Predict the structure of Integral membrane protein.
Amino acid sequence: MGHWWVRNIVEPGKLPLLLALASFVLTFVVTRVITRLIRAGRGPFGNVRAGGLHIHHVVPGVVLTVVGGFGAVASDRHGAGGVVSAVLFGMGAGLVLDEFALILHLDDVYWTEEGRKSVEVVVLTAALVGLLLAGFVPFGVNDLSRQELADRGTVISNIVANFLFSLVALHKGKARTALFGVIVPLVALVGAVRLARPGSPWARRFYGRRPRARARAALRAYRHDRRWARPSRAVQDWIGGKPDPRPARLPGHR
């Protein structure tokens, strides 16, 4: 275990990346727990206010991200400065992306349907960083044997092919499948070979004169959304909290 840790984490300089990922995930989890306690009126926590202004946690997140980012650029990946900067950067990124939806909409949508985008972005970011961390690219690792080079070359080839399948899935309007397909093998392949979603660039390009294909694509998209909408919402509610119900609209009100 010690030999693997040195050759695959310490020697290639991946320790800061590992610490950044760990602090990113931990900060997001702690932040969500605290905000849900505040929302439920439990515990000693409360919103931070200054002069009647609610200070969202994206503000200290930006500060930590800037400090950690510049510190990482100025530090050595193998030194203590790089380690500290990575932790600060991960904490800042966790705070910022936890309120990604607020930045996107320029509105306090944290506990609304639109706020679910923050959870999605955090999960995807953690998964992509995990892919970089677990990658078998032999950069920075010295004295690789021929077998190790062959094994890692095979993995790199598979990653490239998987990435190409992800591009096809993205062109077919399957953004989530494409993103997770970069990380999980065969997911992108499934998205690439199945019918495109209606309105996607692929459907407009190849289904324009194929009414049967358009009809099949629309029916499959409807069945897929109907089947997976509820489980997807349940997972997002479990991670990020259930959004507030939308206020009922009065007749004639827009």
In short: Residues 136-140, 248-254 have pLDDT under 50 and may be disordered.
